[in-house]
Amino acid sequence: MSSDSGVYCYSAVLMGSPVQLKLFEDNQQLAGNVFRLIKQQEDIFTVNRERSQVMAINRAAGEHAVVVSRTLYEVIKLAKKVSTLPGSCFNFTIGPLVKRWKIGFQGCHVPAASELRALLRLTDPNQVILDDVAASVFLPLAGMEIDLGAIAKGYIADVVRDYLRQQGVENALINLGGNVLALGNSVQQPWKIGLKQPFAADDAALGVISVTDKSVVTSGIYERYFELDGRCYHHILDPQTGYPLDNELLSVTIICDNATDGDVWTTLMYGQGVEQGLATLDQNPGIEAVFVTRDKEIICSSQRQFSFKRLNDGYRLID
Ligand code: ADP
Ligand code: MG
Ligand code: MG
What CATH fold (topology level) applies to the domain 53-138? Predict the structure, then answer.
């Protein structure tokens, strides 16, 4: 724990990411409860361990349905809905491809094109059978695997926000591996959240996003990637091709009311790119974005829910 002008900062490493909690009181017990809550949730969602409810669904692929907790069921239902929207690049059945590439883990490599083609047959989200009454999930083909990596952190950030509110906390900040939830304000001013400079060795910021009571979720290709023969292979895969999504984006940040939506929308915007993404956001006034491109541009959508200040002259700001 560290304190600076009345802000108490607690940190941990959870879900493979640094997690930070900022409070306006020295309350180690509350921080401990928050970290335990995140751990409990991680134990439900993870696909990187032997056991979790999600692993149980994956293990039973091609064999039988698995009954899961109501909350996990609702997240899976949402993930299926988003995955089956026309043109969506979000696909929660992308697991077999994620496992094959191992991006961000030891043994990452470029799989053979024929292998990817074969695995693509196991990634049709329409095939997942959900039963609302039993809260059960069935993957009908052996080898199918769900992966909630593009929504789980956002969902868990919302769980933490609800817990903090229940505990009477009005102002706080939780950063769950790039999924930031700002409750209320900082000291007499909005919370200021740094937008990372892509591929910077340190924590250099391109700019600052100021918000009150919002979630600010960032997904960048610089977070998990490997390089081979001058190409960068990052961790957000194109469900059409099986390869990492290839477009002008280095990062997308979504500003909206809740982190689950923020997490879903970062992935959706990745698939659409800047031009189409801005048009989609125009139709969805509650969701706003900051795009950072390979051409060193920072492009803000409408800014009703946040303000942005650029800190790095090397990037052009377009808003
Ligand atoms: P971040 O890891 O930066 O939060 P995302 O929220 O986009 O980024 O989640 C990326 C994770 O989601 C990957 O590590 C993988 O587990 C999974 N994933 C990869 N590609 C897709 C996709 N097209 N749709 C849904 N999930 C994906
Ligand atoms: Mg995410
Ligand atoms: Mg996401």
Answer: T-fold (1.10.3980)
The residue extents of the domains of the chain are 2-38+153-318, 53-138
Q: Tell me: the pLDDT tens digits for 201-243?
A: 888 999 999 999 999 999 988 777 777 777 788 889 999 999 9
Q: Which DSSP letter does residue 120 get?
A: H
What is the dotted CATH code of the domain comprising 2-38+153-318?
Answer: 3.10.520.10
Among 80, 85, 90, 94, which is best to mutate for testing ligand 1, by the most ligand atoms less than 8 A from CB?
94
Distance (angstroms) between ligand 2 centre and the Cα of 154 equals 6
Task: Tell me if domain 2-38+153-318 and domain 53-138 are identical in fold.
Answer: no
The Cα–Cα gap between 9 and 31 comes to 9
In sequence order, the β-bridge partners of residue 233 are: 226
Q: To test ligand 1's pocket by mutation, which of 19, 218, 236, 237 has the most ligand atoms within 8 angstroms of CB? A: 236
- Region 248-257 average pLDDT: 96
Helix (H), strand (E) at residue 100: helix 95-101
- 55 in Cβ contact with 204 (< 8 Å): no
Residue 77: alpha-carbon gap to chain centroid:
17
Higher pLDDT, 191 or 199: 191
How far, in Å, from the CA of 153 to the mean position of ligand 3? Answer: 8
Instruction: Say yes or no: CB of residue 42 within 6 Å of ligand 1.
Output: no
Angle at 260 (CA atoms; ends 263, 1), nearest 5 degrees: 85
Q: Which two tokens stand for residue 129?
A: 């059978």
Residue 83 and residue 125 in contact, taking contact as beta carbons nearer than 8 Å: yes
ipTM: 0.96
Q: How far apart are the first and last CA of the chain?
A: 38
